[in-house]
Amino acid sequence: MRKLRPGLALTTALLITATGCTPAGTTGTAKNGSTAITINSCGRDVTFDTPPKRILAIGSEAPSLLVAAGAGDKITHYAGSLKVPFEQDTKALVERAERVSEDSHNVSYEMILNSKADVVIGTDITKGVDINALAKRLEQAGTKLLTVSGYCGGIPGRSTNGANGFDLIYQDVNNYGRLFGTSQKATESVKRMQDRVTAAKERLTTHTGKTAAPLYVPAKGGIGSYGGQSLVSEQMTALGLKNVFADVPKRYFEPSTEELIGKEPDLVFGMYLPTGSSNTETDEDVVKQLRTRPELKGLATVHKDGAVLPLNYFYTSPGPLAVDGIELIASRLSAS
C-alpha cells in the first residue's frame, strides 16, 4: 500500500501556483443545467457539477476551514490527530466522523477510495506523487481532490509570489462557501477572522522591533526553524517582531548550531507538535527541552526568564487556528 504523503508537513512551503495567485474560482453551467463551481487548487482547476455530500478531511486545517465556511456537517471521514486544539463545534464534528487514519501523513489511495468520499480536502498528501496524475486517477474513481492552499508548496513549480498566508486561509474559506452554497456564512467567518487579526495587531505595541527565533523541537532529530515563507513568520511580522530567519527562502529548515548561536534573538518561540506519546506534549515540556538541548547551550535567550514563548504548532498551521495563534502570541507577549 503506497503512501501518498510521506514525511512531515513541516517541510513544506507556503506556495500556491506556478504563476502566482490565480483567481479563487469561477462559476459556469453543468451538463445537467445546474450551476457548476470551479475552484483553483494549487494551479489545478477542479470543477464540481453539484456540491459534494461526503468529505474526507485530511489534517488539522481542513475541518476548521470547512466549519468556518458553514460546511462542517459534510465531513464524513477524517484522517489526523485528535490532539488538535479544535474549537468545540469542530471537535464534535471530527469525533463524529469516521477515522480513516491517526496520521494525516499516512493516507493511502485505498483509504481514500474506501471512504467513498466525493472530495478529499487536506494537506499536501501528494508530495512525491504527480498531482495531476493522482487527481485524474481519483476523479475516475469518483473522488475529487482539493489541497489546503497553505500546503501547495508540496507541489513543485508553484509560487504565491508573496501572497499572505492569512489571505490564503480566507481564500479557502470563501471557496468552500461557494462550493457548498454557504457563501454568506463564509463571508461572515472571514470578516470575524480579519477583525480578530487586526485586534491582535493593535493589542501589542511594546515588543515592536524585537527579534525572535521560531525553533521547532521534534520528538526525534535536530532542532528545526521556520523561514520567511512560514505562517509563524507572518504572525511575528504582523505583531511587530522580526524573525531572525526571515531571509531564509523556505518554510521549514534545520539550521546549524552556528546559525542558531549567531542570531542571539530577543525572544525564542518554542514550537512543538503534541502527539500523545512524545516527550514534548506541553508548554512546560518544550521549555525544558530547549534548555537542555546541547546544541542550544550557547544560546543565552533560552535560559532567560520570559524570553521563551511556548507555541503549539497547530496554532501556526494554515487554517483558522492560525488566528487563535496570533491572539495567543499577542496575549503572552503583552503579559511578559
UniProtKB/TrEMBL annotation:
Keywords: Signal. It comes from the Bacteria. Residues 54-336 form the Fe/B12 periplasmic-binding domain. Belongs to the bacterial solute-binding protein 8 family. Pfam families: Peripla_BP_2. This is Putative ABC transporter substrate-binding protein. Residues 1-24 form the signal peptide. InterPro entries: ABC_Transporter_SBP (IPR050902), ABC_transptr_periplasmic_BD (IPR002491).
